Input
Amino acid sequence: MSKKLVSLALGTSLVFSASFTGASTFAQSSSDSITSKMEIHQKVMNIDKNGPSFLSGKLSKGVVKNDKDVKKFMQDNKDLFSIDPHSELTLLEQTTDDLGMTHYKFTQSINDVPIDGAIFIVHTNKNNEVTATTGQLYKEASTKVKKTQSNINKSTATDQAWKHISLTEKDTLDGSHDEVVIDAHKESDVESTTVKNDLVIHEKDGEFNLAYKVQLQFIQPYGANWQIFVDAKDGSILESYNAVADGATTGSGYGVLDDYKTLNTYYSNGTYYLYDVTKPMNGVIETRTASNGSSLPGYYTVDSGNTWYAYSQAAEVDAHAYAGKVYDYYKNTHNRNSYDNNGATIRSTVHYGSNYNNAFWNGSQMVYGDGDGSTFTSLSGALDVVAHELTHAVTERTAGLQYQYQSGALNESFSDVFGYFLDPGDYLLGEDIYTPGVSGDALRSLSDPTRFGQPAHMNNYVNTSSDNGGVHTNSGIPNKAAYNTISSIGKTKAEKIYYRALTVYLTPTSNFSYARAALLQSAADLYGSGSSTYNSVKSAWDAVGVY
Ligand code: D38
Ligand code: ZN
Ligand code: CA
Output
């Protein structure tokens, strides 16, 4: 039987000649018949079931010159197309392309109510022969759809749709969400909300229901293109989904110091993540929250509105935004792509421990405590601290300075110095997050290390075995040399010299004297041996007693 042949699953590369001549409905005896023998070359899925179909081949014998002829062609092949083209098909559009092919696009309707998604297209070649039919027809619709009169009106359906997504149209228009947006972020209040509502027949799993297809499209409080099918019988929700595609987007938030900032985020499945895919990395910049206080890497937090405004989100907002800034600094100033210079993922975890007064690089990622609230506030709230931690990662992958004694103090110093390069407003480290109640306070100072108990000259070098041989103490000496250098030659030259020394000349066991030589060599490479820049570096180290 012809139907059987058609419903065979054929590989698309097979050429198949279906012989329909035995079926009386197909073989019209009249000479002007537009159908006699179909040669089907491609077939995808069953046309006699409720699935999309794709047929191609020499499908008609005579010419098909208009939509009336198309319907006749379908009528002649009713066993194949299974619906009544005259009562169920409405021409939506007819186009002829550059190849001279004409495409007749129809929708299947019952009593003029379109079946959502039931689009069927008949394609003819330049000789007006049907060469393909594509799309979807629902064979059972005409018998299954009993009633095309709705019980509820359009505006009730629209109300039901808004209720379903827990918003009102007003929520999506300007106002509530944008009051806090400052002028620099004006683009955030470009609003547009579109509501569409059409009566359709909704099909799902072989069930047909008269429904209002309500489309709610808006930007605030989150990007949405909701497709909501409201049952026209009783206002219940038959199906709903947000058709906005997953992908990179821009959100906003407030940091630890209550400062507004934009964030590179990612939208997936109705929520947003602190997940930045905008950099030319192999990985991403992602920010998480520690689970159970201290298990790493922790979990992704989400925000349904891409508005990271909650107090509890501030530490994440800053860890994420500042990691991006440090990435950009290394990329733009030193052409270094992430800490490994191969675009590695930069991961941060916040809310680590409980009242934890520290931050660290653990060899794989950055970790930040919330602080106890008086000694420290959330440690990710300072750009110089984030730069300090991420520079530990850079050092690990370049000079590899061993984290003890002089090489360890150099490791600390390079982290503090790049903390300055990223946050050059002052020579202090951690002023934004240390003792929030005490103004002008900080953890360390490049210009005056003695202010925080560090030596600023070799005469005061601390010989100790604690803190890995005083790495956070003796770093005061190279820190002071860095301050002397920067204040003499300026940040722009200094950062080039420091980056070159770290990535080209220093090695795991380098001591202070070696660091002086490495920086001088870098200064010579970049600005000339004996140049004033070179001599400034020399004087900077002379002044701290390192030769
Ligand atoms: C001061 C006080 C309490 C705790 C600490 C310091 C106090 O005044 O009561 C602990 N701490 C924090 C820091 N240094 N000591 C500062 C951070 C900076 C970057 C914010 C720091 N962290 C170390 C680092 O990154 O080098 O320097 C963490 C090293 C961890 C190695 N196990
Ligand atoms: Zn450190
Ligand atoms: Ca600072």
The chain has a mean pLDDT of 89. The pocket of zinc ion (ligand 2) is lined by residues 388, 392, 412, 415 (CB under 6 Å). Residues 24-144 form a domain with the TATA-Binding Protein fold (CATH 3.30.310).
